[in-house]
Design brief:
Helix content: 25-40%
Structural class: alpha+beta
Shape: extended
Largest sheet: 4 strands, antiparallel
Distance between the termini: 46 Å
Number of domains: 2
Length: about 170
């Protein structure tokens, strides 16, 4: 499903937004992939949001023919990265440490180890990539020496870490 907003200025007045148009501020609405867990970024690093279009969820963007990079559910554990597997092991350990041992320090330690693995994976993911995106520094562009304005890279905000206050019996 792709829906483009065709509203424009005509005779000096803007036509009113209707529910058949993408969310205000965006030109296109795309169907959300059925296996999407968490969105990451668009191929052009443009801004996007999730909204509803009719009765279903949709990605709103200003990019025509968008390519969205996202996380999907992978149930085949043999395909998981070792660091992901260890983060899940530590996270599960943090959640069952109090009922099994009654030691809050052990639960906190496992949650911290899981969070450290998650943070290092995020750092690795953001620093890896085949594409190089060169931008002109803003202090040079401000002087008029750039033929292209610096581009901003938009990454969808990451989800929460493992919260210690959500662990059973740990405060």
């Amino acid at each position: 499903m792709v829906r483009q907003c065709t509203r424009s200025y005509s005779a000096g007045c803007f036509l009113a937004w209707t529910s058949a148009d993408p969310s205000p501020g965006f030109r296109f609405a795309y169907a959300v992939p059925s296996d999407l867990l968490v969105p990451r970024y668009q191929a052009d690093f443009g801004r996007f949001v999730f909204s509803t279009y009719g009765d279903s969820r949709a990605v709103m963007s200003n990019t025509e023919q968008v390519v969205l990079t996202y996380t999907r559910q992978q149930t085949n554990v043999s395909l998981w990265d070792h660091a992901l597997l260890m983060a899940i092991v530590y996270s599960l350990g943090a959640h069952i440490a109090m009922p099994l041992h009654g030691k809050p320090a052990r639960a906190k330690s496992m949650a911290e180890q899981a969070n450290n693995l998650i943070l290092s994976a995020r750092e690795l993911a953001s620093n890896t990539g085949e594409n190089q995106y060169d931008t002109v520094p803003d202090w040079i562009a401000a002087r008029g020496y750039a033929d292209v304005a610096p581009s901003q890279r938009y990454l969808y905000p990451y989800g929460p870490m493992i919260a210690l206050n959500e662990l059973p019996g740990v405060s």
